[in-house]
C-alpha cells in the first residue's frame, strides 16, 4: 500500500469544541502553531506528543483492565473522543483488540448496552419519530456518508433480540471497515432501527434506553424500514447499505426487495456465504479435492445457512455440476431435523428440502430425521454449524461423521463463543487430529498430542471491509452475487495454506489490510465486468483503492477564515 502525504485540512472549529470533536481531535498531538491558531493554549499539557506516544499510553491504560467488557468500554471511550488515535491503537494491536471491539465481547456489550452507555455514536431511528427521518439524517455528525451498517437488533449474533443494544454491532462492524478495509471513519454511519423489542427482560429493565414497546411487525414494519431507506437515498444516494443481524423472517425479504434497487447487501446471508466458501475452497485445496466432491450438512437453516448453501451450489455449478446435482449434495437441518417436503418451510429454504418418501427410512424413531440420523445416512464430508445453539455438534455426531469420512471439514460458526456448536479442541480430539476446523468466534491454537492446530476464524469480517472498499473505489451502484463469489475466491487465494506458507487456513489479522485491498480490487474488477461500476479502467480502480485507503495518521490543520 502506498502512503501519500496528505493535504492540510481546513478546520472551522476551535477551543474546547475542537477537542470534543472525535474525528478532528488530536489531544496532546496538537502542535504549538495549532494550539495558537485554534485557541487551545492552556487546554492541554505542555508536551507535544506523536500519535505513537499517545497510543503507547493508551495501551498501558488498556492493559490495566482485567476484564474484556471494561476493556471494550475503555476503547469505545477513546473512539468517542479521538477516532484517529483509536484506529492507530487497534490497528497496532489488532489480534489482541479485535475480540474486544468485535465478536465475542461486542455481544456482551450489546446485552449491557443501556447499563454501559456513555456517549452518543450513530443514529437511533425510532418508530414513533418516523415522520422525521429526514431531519435525523441531517443531524448525523458525518456529512459525507459512504457506508451505513443498519440493524433492527432482532437477532444479534446468537443472542436474540437486544433492542437498541444491537447498536454495538454496527459500531463494531464499521470499526472494522476502517481498521481492516481502510475506509475513513468520516464516511461511516452506524444505525439502529428502534422498532421496539420483544425481549421482556429489557422491557422490564428500568435502565433500558430504547422505545419501551413490543416490536412493530408486518406491513407497518416494512413500511418503516422503507421510509428509512428512502430517506437515506435522498440524503446520500450513493451510500452502501449493509443490513446486519435482522431476524430470519425479515432478512431475506428485505434483501430481495432492495438488492436490485440500491447499493446494498446482507452481511449475514452474503458476507457469511463468501467467507465460508472462501474457507472451504482453501480447505479443499489442502485436501486436493473440489467443492463438487463434497456432501454438506448444515446445522441451522436460517439466513446464514441458506446463504452459504446457495453459494456452495453456485460454486459446484462453476465446477461442472448441474443445479439439481449440487442441491442433492446439500442437507439442511432446523430444530425439527432435516428439511423435508412434508414440512412448512420458508421460501428461501424451499429448494433444499428433500423428498420425505426417499429419506423416511433414515429416521431412527420413525418421525423426524435428526442430525445424528442424517450424518449416519448421508455421510457428509463437510459439517457447518449456523444454529446459534451451543453444543449441537456433539461427540456422537462428530464420531459418526468421522467413521465414514477420514478428513472431515467441521465449521461451528455460531457466535459469540458461548453459542459455538462444538469446541475446536473437542472436535480435534474426537477426530484424532484429522478434522479441519474453523469457527466464527476466535479460539486459541489447539495442542493435541504434541501438535499445534491453529483455528481459523471464519467470520464475515474477512469479507465486508474489502467488499466495501471495492464498491467505493469502483463507484459500484449495486452489489451482485458474483461480486461476493469473487470475494470468496480472492480470500482463498490469500490463504497461507493455499500459498504453501503455513498451516493457517485464513490469513493472519496482521495481513488483513493487504487482504482487504486484494479483495477490493477483485470485487471492483467484477463490478466493472458486470457493468455496475462507474470506473471502467483497472489502473484507475487500483489508484482509487489506494487513494481511498485511509490510514490513522494526523493531518496538519489550517484555520478556515469565517
Ligand atoms: N461466522 C460468521 O461470520 C457468522 C455469520 C452469520 C451468522 N453467524 C452465526 O450463525 C448463527 C445463526 O445466524 P442466522 O442469521 O442464520 O440465524 P437465523 O435465526 O436466521 O437461523 C438460525 C437457524 O438455526 C436453526 N436452529 C435453531 N435451533 C436448532 C436446533 N436445535 N437444531 C438445528 N437447527 C436449529 C433455526 O431453525 C434456524 O434455521 C448465529 O449464532 C450467528 O452468530 C455467524
Ligand atoms: O458479527 C459477527 O461476528 C459475525 C456475524 O455477522 C454474526 O451475526 O454472527
Ligand atoms: Mg451478523
TrEMBL record:
Alphabetized UniProt keyword annotations: Metal-binding, NAD, Oxidoreductase
InterPro entries: Aminoacid_DH-like_N_sf, Malic_enzyme_CS, Malic_N_dom, Malic_N_dom_sf, Malic_NAD-bd, Malic_OxRdtase, NAD(P)-bd_dom_sf
Cofactor(s) essential for the protein: Mn(2+)
UniProt domain Malic enzyme N-terminal: residue ranges: 79-259
Superkingdom, natural source: Bacteria
GO terms of molecular function: oxidoreductase activity
E.C. numbers: 1.1.1.38
Domain Malic enzyme NAD-binding: 269-528
PROSITE patterns: MALIC_ENZYMES (PS00331)
PANTHER family hit by this protein: MALIC ENZYME-RELATED, NAD-DEPENDENT MALIC ENZYME, MITOCHONDRIAL
Family: Belongs to the malic enzymes family.
Protein name: NAD-dependent malic enzyme
Species of provenance: Aliikangiella maris
Taxonomic path: Bacteria, Pseudomonadati, Pseudomonadota, Gammaproteobacteria, Oceanospirillales
